[in-house]
Fold this sequence. Notes:
CATH architecture of the domain at 3-172 and 202-228 and 276-285: 3-Layer(aba) Sandwich
CATH superfamily of the domain at 3-172 and 202-228 and 276-285: NAD(P)-binding Rossmann-like Domain
Shape: globular
Structural class: alpha/beta
Largest sheet: 8 strands, mixed
CATH topology of the domain at 3-172 and 202-228 and 276-285: Rossmann fold
CATH class of the domain at 3-172 and 202-228 and 276-285: Alpha Beta
Helix content: 25-40%
Number of helices: 11
Order of helices and strands: EHEEEHEHEEHEEHEHEHHHEHH
Oligomer: single chain
Amino acid sequence: MKTILVTGGSGMIGRRLSEMLRENGYSVIWLSRERHVNGNYPRYRWNYHKNEVEKEALEQADIIIHIAGSNLGEGTWTRRKKQEIVESRVQTAALLLETIKTLPRKPEAFISASAIGFYGMHTSDKIFNEKDQPAKNDFLSRTCKKWEAVAGAFQEELGIRTVVLRTAFVLSENSEGFKKMTVPVRFGLGAPLGSGKQYMPWIHLDDLCRIYVKAVEDTAMQGVYNAVAPEFVTNALFMKTMAKEMKRPFFFPKIPAFMLRLMMGEAADMLLEGSRVSSQKISDAGYQFLYPTVSEAIRASL
């Protein structure tokens, strides 16, 4: 039985992924702020602010899945919040890398989260794929570039098979972002955000976690993959589909972009901008989506 070390295990993605890994016969341990080795998932302590991590966890790990990171949608992007977003992803990965260098036994694979924010917060007709370059002068893109650079060092410096999953907006009944979107719809106030013409790349939580499991098991997988569903939808179509699945009207006028920017600041661009992102590479690797259409994914998430 292989042991999988998950960072960010207590989050929405981490919990569902841990369940799936255990169902597939793996032993799962977490890195956490508090040590609790007798819990449902044994937790080992780490603190990237102090450059501390319990080596015992890394010594056990056959594979590491790194999905820790400060929530992008929580609060406005102040200078301090931006620093936390970057450090909670980049410094944590760097801490793992430097600690593993000191160990006699290395993990077989390092699988890291990233985000489709790599391609930038803008709306265009382009369909982005894994060969495209990061956007310039864009906070999320710069963050993803740094994040992926540290992940790539596991392969380049240690020869460890590395997979990076650029993740889209995750649909799930446990997603706080998805729950917030259902509230106005429930009261018959569903509406497109801004122009509504921006594309909204998405993926259902179970598909995302199954892709992580595939990355664990498929040793041919290496490098960057977009973790996005195959169906392209605009924000307007997404909101209209949600209203239809919830059997609610969809007559409300568009929510002006300036209102969202007043409430969320720069972070509003995550909702107001978006281009299409290709899922072709992960499909070519043999992955078949449980929820290939947004209507199926929304229905499963309500």
